[in-house]
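Lecture notes, unit on protein representations.

Consider one protein chain, 454 amino acids long.
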Amino acid sequence: MNGKILVVDDEKGQRDILHAILNKAGYEIAAVPGAREALQQLDKAEFDIILTDLKMQGLSGMDLLDQVLDQNPHQCVVMMTAHGTVDSAVEAMKKGAFDYLEKPLERQELLLTLQRAMEHVLLLRENRVLHKQLSETLSIPTIIGDHPKIKEVFRVIGKIAPTGSTVLISGESGTGKELVARAIHDLSPRKERQFFAINCAAIPETLIESELFGHEKGAFTGASSRELGLFEAADGGTLFLDEIGEMNVAMQAKLLRAIQLKEVRRVGGKTPIPVDVRIISATNKDLETEIRRGTFREDLFYRLNVIRINLPPLRERGSDIATLAEFFVRKYSSEASLPVKGLSKGSLKILMNYSWPGNVRQLESVIERGVLMAENELIEPEDLPGEVHGDSTSGARIRFDLPPEGISFEELERDLIVKAMDRSGWIISKAAPLLGMSYKTLQYRLEKFGIQKP
């Protein structure tokens, strides 16, 4: 069964035709002659998609849309409209309808639209389940996404959190490395003890040893009393060392000793102090390259790199942009008590086309600004900062030199399609715009090349 659809149309002949087409396509169908009957059906059962005519006797399709989305903002509604009422259908999409179809309906277009609608429904449903699991288990709802690469991160977190192994998190700035570290701590047996985080790049070299290991009174100028270091403070808990690649080599040797012996010695002290601390470190550098350069100790690297988690940049998980943006809209509209509910299609297109060098952190900042600048319930393109407009690649021409030996155009096309599908989480309706193709054209190309989701 492909899904459950409620057909709403006051023309019996149209209802019968739709029932026959959709039933043959594998959908479970309920058909009613008006909006009031549709609302009664929705009180009794849930439907994946509502396929409704716009102009009907009594309550219109627009009235039905308003009432349905008021009760369930996630309900997927597809409008059917005559040629002269297309403007009204576009207005319905602004209100939250998924799409519209022009009468007389064309069978293939109808089935393709409903297929896209079901993909959308399943994506939202999976994401809500994921949100619930993250909120209940990780207590960090801002780790959001359903792209295969981020799902793999979730899987690894769940598998290694209960252990005591050291973890190295790599990824570009702004990808959420500290959030992952906190999630590991919150899922571990150490969750009742302290989690401490330190940015190794932000602490002067002369102070980082004292910050980590503590110091005795009089150990150096200004040390007027004994101070515990983060290793002692985090005893029984977790210590997160961010930007570990910025630590100098001399300090790396002392850190290695503390991890190996599970003990520290305060600056100015002589007595070793046993500590039980789980070390999670993070870097946006290629530590293997730093080892070859002599700026990072190989032995420390292997101590830290027992478990490796690679966080993908936002540009490689493009299918999560809309989900993350919606989450940040809700967050900041609630914090500022503003009536902003989402993004316009134009705004979302701009966000999807931007390369996000600052990753999730930058997206959050852009959405916060958009919420504050918005004049109505939707964030419009003019509410977004200029930085995201300038990088739009929609319709851009890609220029490259043809190699002397030539290329296989078919292989190039296939490679581009695979990359677009991977970036969009293997959702055709999201990958097609990245390639400047229609949904049908991309679907044909996928079948032509025999491309399947890995």
